[in-house]
């Protein structure tokens, strides 16, 4: 992968010259919002993100609508997304039933969540971490047979709202299990926004050692204002993909006081000013974040839409 050298603050940073931003607004950005958007509105959000250059979009979640009503109508959304523009659409699944729905709906990739702590895993998906890993093995094998790439997101990798610190050895072992079942990608998720750059470095290196064949992705929340520092650290550590949500919306319905993802537009600003390209239109994403805020009835947490880029 090509690298760039960026001078700043008296030091030289060596970073990837290009990184993929996976737009998670249509799924993780909406799943914790009080206002439930219609499938048509969610399709419009996806269309805007695709038009702004997003080439990987987490479009839907195949969970029971009784658990997460914001994600009802996943099949309808997938039926309406724009095809043929080089966009890969992923769907979140937690079990074999969810996978069957995802495959029938025509997703391009599958994202399976495994929570790194038992307490949170029970609240999130009604099972222990080991039981979630057993389900992952079944899902990964079936997805492989169907020719659809399956990746794993390790949730609460940086900390759990119920058990406290997440042992990094536990995260590495889950990553190893992910790779053993053929994960094309392993994502480390700071689900409740407690991580700091030192943890990013440590977990990135442990995960690469445990799952060297899988691409490394990170998912950050800005709950304690460390999300963007963590994202830039992940780039320095060789991350291939960063998750972000247009407008900075998001959170987990099953985690107390969970707040939004890092905002796509704010992340793009930080990356581009650091010499890291994404292929996305920062202004268009900022407009999308503001538009989404009007649909949800509240201002977008993102700052770029208010301050504007620099130079203007």
From TrEMBL:
Keywords: Lyase, Metal-binding. Residues 19-286 form the Pyruvate carboxyltransferase domain. InterPro entries: Aldolase_TIM, HMGL, PYR_CT. This is Hydroxymethylglutaryl-CoA lyase. Belongs to the HMG-CoA lyase family. It comes from the Bacteria. One of its GO terms (molecular function) is lyase activity. Pfam families: HMGL-like.
